[in-house]
Amino acid sequence: MSVKHEEQFEPTPYVVAIITYIGYVMLAVFGHMRDFLRNHGFEKNLIATEPARTKDFVPLYQNFESFYTRNLYRRIRDCWNRPIRTCPGAEFELIDRKSPDHGWSFEYPGTHTRAINFGSYNYLGFAETDGPCADAAAAATETFGCGVGSPRAEAGNLDLHTRLEATVAEFVGAEDAIIFPMGFATNALNMPALIGKGCCVLSDELNHSSLVLGARLTGAKIKVFRHNDIADVEAKLRDAIVYGQDRTRRPFKKILIVVEGVYSMEGSVTRLPELIALKKKYKAYLYLDEAHSIGAMGPHGRGVVDYFGCDPRDVDVLMGTFTKSFGGAGGYIAGSQHLVALLRQRSHSGLYGASLPAPVAAQVVTAFQMLMGRAGPPGEGARRLKQLEVNTQYFRASLHRLGVIVYGHRTSPVVPVMIFMPGKIAAFGRETLKRGLGTVVVGYPATPIIESRARFCLSAAHSLDIIDRSVQIIDEVTSLLLMKYSRRPPPAWTAGITREWAEAQLKLVDQQRRPHGAANGGPVPRRPVECRGDPPDKVADENDAAVKDNLAAVAAAS
Amino acid sequence: MLIFVADADVSWEFSDLIEAIYSAPTYHLVFEGCLILFIVGLLFQHSFLPSKRRGGSGDRLSKAEEDQLIAEWQPEPLVSGDPADEALLASYQRCATSQVGRSVTYSDGRTLVNFATGNFLDFIGEARIRDRALASLRHYGVGSCGPRGFYGTMDVHLHLEEQLAKFYGCEEAVLYSYGFSTIASAIPSYAKRHDIIFADERCCFAIQQGLEASRSKIIRFAHNDTAHLEELLQRQAEHDRRDPKKARVTRKFIVVEGLYVNCGDICPLGELVKLKYKYKVRLFVEESASLGTLGATRARHLRGGRRQRAGRGSDSGWNRECSGPLRGFVVGTKYVVDHQRLSGLGYCFSASLPPMLAAAASEALTMVDEMRGERTARLKSVSDRLHQRLLAELDNLWSVEGAPMSPIKHLRLHRCTGENSLPALEAACAAAADAGLLLTVARYVAQDLGQPAQPSIRLSVNCNHSDSEIGSLLDFLKSYATGLAKKCFQQLNISRKVRPWII
Questions:
Q1: pLDDT score of B498 more than 60
Q2: Distance between CA A317 and CA A378 in Å, rounded?
Q3: Whether pTM exceeds 0.90
Q4: Which of A133, A152, A331, B385 is most exposed, with minimal Cβ within 10 Å?
Q5: Which residue of B has its CA nearest to A163?
Q6: Cα–Cα distance, B497 to B374 (Å, whole number)
Q7: Distance from CA of B462 to the nearest CA of A (A)
Q8: Which architecture characterizes domain A132-374 according to CATH?
C-alpha cells in the first residue's frame, strides 16, 4: 500500500457487535417501559407537549418519531451542546451544567471547567483573540461595521470580498473564486446552478448533509456509491452512460461526481488521482468539497489536491469552507472563470443572501496571507502546517499504540476512535471531561448504529505536551471502559513516530524558518501540471536524513 | 410426559405418511411430483426486478458495445454558454470601501446616499454595537469553530436566544447562522412528504427552496388574498371529511411573509390567525424584513397579542435588514421549536454564528428594546412621507408598489416614459450614482416563482433619511424620468409627423 492511501478501518469484532446490539435492545425495552409508565401517569411526563390552543391540530411530529430522542438521546444529552465561554483554542472553559431531571432540562450553577479542546475545528489554530488575524478583523469592524445588509449582486459588495476572492483563487490555484457567507449554504444552494433535471449526480455514501441536500435540490438523478470505492464509481459511471436516464432512456446531459476531501466522521481521504483519471476517461465532472481538508492537508495546506500533487484545474468545482482551518465562517467555490461567472449570475446565495460580514472576511484573508508567507511573523504559516502534520501523526501513532481502534488516514487531522456500545458513548464523554479533556462523541444517526465513536480534531495550537497529556487521559479512560478493542498490532508506520521524532521535526522547521525567513516569505511555486500518484520519494528521503541528523544532535545534547 | 406423547404422535404421523405413499395410486404420485418440480422451477426463476431485467440474458450489452456507447457519449459542458449579464457581473466589481450605512463610499472615491440596502433602523456603524462586537472579538476570536452540538455554543448564543424569546414573548428561540437557510431548513424539518403547504404566490425565494426541500404538496394562493386562501382551505377540509384516516396524519401549514420583500406589502396577519384556528392549520410567518421595522402597528399587535402569537405554529425570521449582524432565528412554543434542534439541517450541520456577530445582534436587540419603538416610529413616518411624495410628485412618471408604511418600495417606469425593462432600470441606477444616490434593481434568479412580472428598482428606507436626502431622491427620479419621457415624446412626435407622409 502506498503512503498516500495508508488508511485503516479495522472491522468491528463480532463479540463487540453482538454486545452493542444487545445494548440497543435493552435501551429500547426500557424505553418502552418508561413510555408505558409515562402514558399511564406513573411517571411524570416532562416532554414538551402541544399547548392547549393547538391540541386538536394534527401533531407536528409523531410520538414514535421522538422515541429515540426521548429515551436514548435525552439520557446522555449532557455530552452535546456543551456551552463554552472562551475562545475555542487549544484549551477552553466550559460552562458547567446540572440537570435536576435526568436530561430534560439544564441549570447553570455558575461554575466553569477548564479543558483541553479536541472538539473544535481549529486545524491551523487561527481561533485566536490576538495576532495578525484578530487585528485585521478588528480593523475591518472599525471600518465596515458588522453587517452589510444586502446581497452582493445588489449593493453588498465590499472591497474586502473582492480581495478575499482573489486570494482564495490564488491559494487553491484556480482561475477565479466566489465566496459565500455560510459553508452549508455553499453546497446546498450552488449545486442547483450547475446541474438540473436530466443530469446525474454520483455521490459518495458518506457525503455531508449539505451535499446531499444540494444534490436533492437540483432535481437530478442521484446515484450513491460505496465510500471511497473506485471500482463502484466506475461501475456506476459506466451504467449511467450506457443505460442513460430511467424510463426515458435518454442519455444524461452531464454527470457530476461529488466527493469530499477528508470525511469528517471517518477521517478518510478521498482517492483523488484515481477519480481524476476516471473523470477524464468518462467525461464526467468532479465536485470536490474540501471543507475539512483545505488548510489541513498537503505540504502547502492547499487541501487534498496539494497532498496528492494533482493539478487543481483537473477538478471542475473546488469547494471549501473558512470555518475549519481559518477560524472564520463561510465558504468558497473556485474553478474556471466561466464557472465562477455563471455562479455570480445564478447562485441563490449571491443573489439573495446577505454578503459575508467584513470582520470574518478580514480574518480569512489574513489567514490565507499567513499561509502564503505574506503576513504575520515570517514562516509562521509553514510552522503551523508542519505542527499540524506532526501533531496528527504523533497523536494517531500514540492511539494505535494504546490498542484502541482508530479509523482513517494517517495524515487526516480528524481522528475517530471507536466506542461501539451505546452506554460507553456517554461514559467516554463524561469521563474524559472529568479528567480535563473535551472531545466529541457521535452515535446514531450521525454514524451507523453500531459504529458509535469519539472524534478528536487536531490543531496546530496543540503542543506536544498537550497531546501527551490527552493520550494519557485517553489511556486511562479506555482502560476503564474496556475500549481497547484492536486485535491488530499497530501499523508499521507508527514505529518511528515517537516524541523524539516529533520534537526533531518541529525543531527542523524552526531552523528552516530562522535563517531563510525571507525566502519563505515569497510566493509558493505553482503546483506541477501533471498528476502524480505518489509523492516524490526523494523529498521524503531528504527530510528523513535531516531528521536523523537532528535526532543525533538531540541525543548528543542530552 | 408431555414430550413423550408428542413424540409418539409425530412418529405415528410420519410412519403413516410413508404408508400412505405406498398405498397411493400412481397418477397421484405423478401429480405431486409435477407440483414439486413446478415449485423448484419457481425458486430458480429470475426475479422481475427492472434493474436485473435490463441486464438480462437477451439485451445484455457486450463490453465492446458498452465501450462504443461510452466513447460516443458527449456530455453538455458543465457551464453552458448563455450570454453573460454584464450589468449583474459589474455589481460584483463595485467595491465599497466604507461601511454600507446611510451613505457609502466606493473605490472610485464617490460617496453615495444609500437607498439600496436594508439598514432600516440605521444600526450599521452604530458605535455601541461596534464596541460590543470588538470586545467580543477580543474575547472569543472570530469563528465559532464548530456546529452548536460540538462546542460551537457560546454563552452569547444562549443569551441571544433567551433575549429573542423574550422579545417576541415566546417560549423558545433557535438561532441559525445564515438568514437564507433559516426558513429553508425550518420548513422541511416539520413538513414532510404527504403533508400540505399553502403558500403565498409571492413568497421569497428562500421560502420556495424550503417548500421544495420538504417534498410536500404545495398549494399556492393569490397574493394576500385571504378569501382565496379560505376557499382552498375549505376545499381541503372537504377532502379531509371524505378521507378522515388520511387527514389525521396530514399536517397542514400556511406560509406567508410578514413584509413581502418582493412587493413591499404586509400580510393580513389577523385574518390569517383566524383562519389558522378555524381550519387547524399551522402558520409560518417569515419576518426577515419586518422584525423591528413594522413596530408602531405591529408591535402592539405582537406584544399586546402575545398569547395569540405564541399560539402560532412557528414564527421564523431571517433578518438581514434590520440589525445587520443578526442572521436568522425561529421563535415559537417549546414543543414546536425544540424539534429543530435535532432536525433542522442548517442548524445541526453548520457551524454556529460567529460569537462577535451574536454579541452585536444582542446589543442591537437591547437597543430596540430601550428605544421603545422610537426609531421604528420614525422609520414608519419617513416611509409614509416618502410614499406620499412619490405618489404626489411622480405621478405619470414612476409607479410605486408597496404599503405606505413599508420601508421597502418597488419603483417601475410608467408607460409614458418608455418601456420598463431591466436595462432601462439599470441605466437609471447608473445615472443615480452620478447624482450621488445609491439605488439598485431587485435581482432574481430565473427559477424564482415569486418574482414580479415586471422588473423594478427596490428602494429601502432608513429611519434617519433626512428630508433633503429624500428631496434629492425625488428630484433625481423626476428629472430622469422627465428626460426619458421627453425622448419618448419626441419619438412619438416623429412617428406622428412621419405617418401622414407615408399615407
A1: no
A2: 32
A3: no
A4: B385
A5: B95
A6: 58
A7: 12
A8: 3-Layer(aba) Sandwich (3.40)
Among chain B residues, the shortest Cα distance to A52 is held by B311
Q: What letter does residue B269 receive in the DSSP assignment?
A: H
A414 in contact with chain B, both atoms CB, cutoff 8 A? no
Considering only CB atoms, A254 lies closest to which of B76, B133, B342, namely B76
Residues of A in contact with B190 (CB under 8 A): 60-61
**pLDDT tens for each residue of A122-174:** 999 999 999 999 999 999 999 998 878 788 888 888 999 999 999 999 999 99
Question: Is the CB of residue A296 less than 8 Å from the CB of residue A262?
Answer: yes
Residue type, position B475, single letter: D
Q: Residue A266: how many CB atoms within 10 A of its CB?
A: 23
Residue with cell 453500531: A450
| CA–CA gap between residue B502 and residue B498 (Å, rounded) | 6
Rounded to an integer, what distance in angstroms lies between the CA atom of residue A304 and that of residue B252?
Answer: 46
Tell me, what DSSP letter sits at residue A57? S
Low-confidence ranges of chain A (pLDDT < 70): 1-5, 63-65, 514-558
Q: Cell numbers of B337, please?
A: 421549536
Residue A128 CA: distances (Å) to CA of A90, A124, A147, A388, B25: 10, 11, 21, 16, 94
Residue A504 one-letter amino acid: A
Q: Does B332 touch chain A (CB under 8 A)?
A: no
| pLDDT, mean of residues B287-316 | 41
Cβ–Cβ under 8 Å, residues A355 and A158: yes
Q: What is the rounded CA–CA span in Å between residue B461 and residue B380?
A: 9
Q: What is the Cα–Cα distance from B51 to B74, expressed in whole angstroms? A: 24
**Residue A229 burial (CB count, 10 A):** 14
Report the amino acid identity of residue A4.
Answer: K
- The span from the CA of B198 to the CA of B303, in Å, is 26
- Main-chain dihedrals φ then ψ at residue A516, nearest 5 degrees: -105, 30
Got the DSSP string for B360-427? HHHHHHHHHHHHTTHHHHHHHHHHHHHHHHHHHHSTTTEEEES-TT-SEEEEEE-GGG----HHHHHH
Tell me, what's the pLDDT at B294? 56
Note the pLDDT of residue A290.
Answer: 94
Q: What are the extents of the domains in chain A?
A: 1-117+377-527, 132-374
* All domains of chain B in start order, with CATH: 94-123+374-490 (3.90.1150.10), 127-296+318-371 (3.40.640.10)
Q: SS3 helix, strand, coil % of chain B, rounded to 5?
A: 50, 15, 35
- Report pLDDT digits (tens) over B137-161: 999 999 999 999 899 999 999 999 9
Q: Taking a contact as any Cβ pair under 8 Å apart, which residues of chain B between 446 and 485 contact chain A?
A: 446-447, 458
Which residue pairs, CB below 8 angstroms and at least 24 apart, start in B449-454? Answer: B449/B201, B449/B208, B449/B220, B450/B201, B450/B202, B450/B203, B450/B204, B450/B205, B450/B207, B450/B208, B450/B262, B451/B262, B452/B202, B452/B262, B452/B263, B452/B401, B452/B410, B454/B412, B454/B420
Instruction: Check whether B5 has a pLDDT greater than 50.
Output: no
HSE toward the beta carbon, residue B204, CA cutoff 13 A: 30
Lowest mean pLDDT across A124-128, B270-274, B393-397: B393-397
Dihedral sign (CA B48, B49, B51, B52): negative
How large is the average pLDDT for residues B417-444?
A: 88
Alpha helices in B75-203 (DSSP H): 86-91, 127-140, 155-168, 179-190
Q: Grid coordinates in use for B73?
A: 457519449
* pLDDT tens by residue, B14-59: 777 778 778 888 888 899 999 999 999 888 876 665 555 554 445 6
Rg of chain B on CA atoms, in Å: 33
| Closest Cα in chain B, distance from residue A524 (Å) | 27
CATH class of A1-117+377-527: alpha beta
Residues A212, A213, A216, A222: what is their CA dihedral angle, to the nearest 10 degrees? 0
CB contact A499 to B (< 8 Å): no
Tell me, rounded to whole angstroms, the distance of Cα B178 from its chain centroid: 12
